[in-house]
Amino acid sequence: MPHSEATREFAPETYPEFPTGFPTVELETISLTKLLTDNDAAEADRVFEICKGRGFFYLELPGCPAGDIIAEGANKVAAAAEDVFKLPLEEKMKYHIQGDSLDGYKLAGETKTDKAGTGDTAEFFNLGKNEMIVPDDQMKKPWPEVVKASKPMFKEYIETAHGVGQFILGILAKKLGVDPAEFANRHRIEEMSGDHIRMTRGPPREKEELPEIQTPSHTDFGTITLLMNWLGGLQVWSESARKALLLNHEPDVPVINLGDAAVKFTNGVLCAGRHRVIPAPGAQGKYPRYSIVYFVRPENQCIMKQLRAPGIPDGPQEEKDINARDWIKQQAAGLGVQFQAYKN
Ligand SMILES: O=C(O)CCC(=O)C(=O)O
Ligand SMILES: [Fe+2]
């Protein structure tokens, strides 16, 4: 059952503004309407340039139906996330992420953030795309009642976020001289893939000094990610500063970033930015931090090879074929060794 308004902890209307006084990384803003509705060539050029560089940008949503669905949908998904995270631990543990599955619950502390073994502080609940978009009788896994009750809403959010991701990949394909169908056919929504909505909750900040690692340094494994959060705390790697810096956070504006699969398909032409999450800085840090992420990933059976195209330099032939499912597992297994590269 939804909780009464008074007890809601996901309450974006009450959050203070992102504080001044912290060094930040400025991201460029791309208009979804210019891309989707106006077919704006200059905006498409900017997307390509950004994706060859930092690989992170803000996506301005208002002005088109897909933008409205993402803006409203992310708020609804976060409200549902609160209902999920408020379930008793014993109930959440019934859905604990197990084996090869990405679906379900991850406890805070399960991921190590440094060599000393310090645990992360974020709880996740992952909602697999292939579970949420199929009729109830085709679902393969058990889900909490609060998830089942909101399934049509999750489905709409998934379809829209996936469509926006596909559209941006189509723009990048054209710029690279790749037939857009080559990208589209590696990310068909109805095919099995590791795509999911990740609902995240991080506790309030304990100390004033940064960081307190909520989610350790990583690049996303998939192709493209759409990320919504309402409080600061996302840090991206700044090459010039040689450390991770906070984004100049803007509420209600999602961040788009590329992942490792986009780098692989383009032999390094496109870039996946490294990032991590800390509790929000300053007065924002008093609030638990929710984020709603949608990961567009290659289909499980997709062979992870670079595409051959005029805009992609030829690398050596891959020694053996590996499909996306195994490749992502391999990327995940390598995560631990990257922490040393991080300073706050
Ligand atoms: O919570 C955030 O703002 C980012 C989360 C993230 O990077 C991830 O889940 O991959
Ligand atoms: Fe990420």
From TrEMBL:
It comes from Xylaria arbuscula. Gene3D superfamilies: B-lactam Antibiotic, Isopenicillin N Synthase, Chain. GO terms for molecular function: metal ion binding; oxidoreductase activity. InterPro entries: DIOX_N, IPNS-like_FE2OG_OXY, IPNS-like_sf, Iron_ascorbate_oxido_reductase, Oxoglu/Fe-dep_dioxygenase_dom. The keyword Metal-binding applies. PANTHER family: 2-OXOGLUTARATE (2OG) AND FE(II)-DEPENDENT OXYGENASE SUPERFAMILY PROTEIN-RELATED. Keywords: Iron, Metal-binding, Oxidoreductase. One of its GO terms (biological process) is small molecule biosynthetic process. Belongs to the iron/ascorbate-dependent oxidoreductase family. Residues 193-298 form the Fe2OG dioxygenase domain. This is Fe2OG dioxygenase domain-containing protein. Pfam families: 2OG-FeII_Oxy, DIOX_N.
